[in-house]
Amino acid sequence: MPINHPPRHGRRRPALVVLCFVQFMLVLDDNVVSVALPSMKEDLGFGAAGLAWVVNAYFLAFGGLLLLFGRMADLLGRRRVFLTGVALFGAASLVCGLAQEPWQLVAGRFVQGAGAAMASPAALALIALLFPGTEERARAFGIWGGIAALGGTMGLVISGALTGLASWRWIFLINLPVALAAVVLLPRLVPESRAGRAVRLDVPGAVLGTGALVALVYGLLRTGESGWGDTTAVGSLGLAVLLAVAFVAVEARTAEPLVPLSFLSFRIRAVANGTTLLYSAAMYAMAFLLMVHLQTVLGYRPLTAGLAYLPYGAGILVGMWLSSRAVARLGVRPALVMSFLISAAGLVMLSGVAPSDGYASGVLPGMLVTSLGCGLSLPALTVAALTGTTEENAGVGSAVLSSVQQVGGAVGVAVLVALASRRSDALAAREGTLHAATEGFSFALAVAAAVLVLGAVLLGTLLGKRHRPEGALDAAEAPVPHADRA
């Protein structure tokens, strides 16, 4: 029997606050280790290859297990899976903070990623069900998207501050109060919800889908480390393709598929997820390349480079505040096209940053424009990607979106960083190292801007031309009411 009890209206906002703080913590851990890696290497005796897996283990588990745990949230209960994931994440954070050997830290990071893969899609599904109307969902996702983006930005700042002032161990231990508060508070604020009918877990689909994602993410991570000529990377990517083909074949014949093909073929969701892949690729690569550029070309210290991102967070907050208003007044399609073009303009501005430029005159203008577009786009993309989701498939819809974001980020870093490296290597001999690095950075960001323009074109042409001033979607594509409105 389904479990779908109506929440009290007054508890939805406190529940949203708790869910957003947890997402902030999960996204923060995507890159919180970046600045602290040298200290970890010195304290625990990491080799160069092992140190990379402090980052990669988290991405591999997070990106690879999202689909499986998203579907499990629909079947077993979204609140239950969310709380289990948060508790697992908190326990793994404690292991990371107390690690005495390299393998303990890497194992803890993998379990952290698994906990994040449980909690993140379940949380997003709960928000989608708590806020069913187009405008209120846009506002809720605006807060969610903004807080998540801030987590990515603040990870660099917090990592630099804690590593410099205390110890790298505190970048993990600060997760414990957030996890504990969520486990205590959320059961009082959010009722349990699960699919409205008894559904079995599609085990073959789960194995194939999870295997395809793990192989894809691993192949992309390996490519980022060793290049596209690495045989292990190529083999992993080839395996991912084979498993994905088998997954589609199995899902087409299964009575209760892990991801119904009809879900993926729904036009507005398909376009939203496809363009989210492009957006994530461009923005993850930008964040990586800009951090490297600030330190290696402009000469910033790690903490200074982290603090340089603070205005980026402010721009996201402004964009987040404007996003729901843009969706309500213009509609989802125009709001998304505008946001992609704003972000593309910001990337073009950043691509022109030269070694002689100051922060205020060179870096800051492009950073603010890019962050404004980011704050505008993420909530609207989430609204579009979860259009039409119900208590039957809210978890899998959230997991698909989160998987697309993770894979897009891995693709962007692997491809665009490789482009930057090739460009700089080709010019280094005759142009000098500093100029060559700048040219590589500029070229990669220009390509990222072109990717966003392509996304804007796809959104403008594929989402349809019908428009309502109130921002509502077409009736056939409107979000389906859920249990708390039944």
What does this structure look like?
With 486 residues, the protein is mainly α. The chain is 79% helix and 0% strand. The longest helix is centred in the last third of the chain and has 38 residues, at 394-431. The protein is globular, with a radius of gyration of 21 Å. The model is unreliable at 1-8 and 466-486 (pLDDT under 50).
Topology:
Elements: H1 12-31, H2 37-44, H3 48-76, H4 78-98, H5 102-130, H6 134-165, H7 170-173, H8 175-189, H9 203-226, H10 231-253, H11 261-265, H12 267-296, H13 302-307, H14 310-330, H15 332-351, H16 359-385, H17 394-431, H18 433-462
Helix pairs in contact: 1-5, 1-6, 1-8, 3-4, 3-5, 3-9, 3-17, 4-5, 4-8, 5-6, 5-17, 6-14, 6-16, 9-10, 9-17, 12-16, 12-17, 12-18, 14-15, 14-16, 15-16, 15-18, 17-18
> Helical residue percent?
over 70%
Largest sheet: none
Strand content: under 5%
Distance between the termini: 16 Å
Low-confidence parts? 1-8, 466-486
Q: Can you tell me the overall shape? A: globular
Number of β-strand runs = 0
SSE order: HHHHHHHHHHHHHHHHHH
Q: How much is the average pLDDT?
A: 81
How many helices does DSSP assign? 18
Q: Structural class, judged by helices and strands?
A: mainly alpha
Radius of gyration: 21 Å
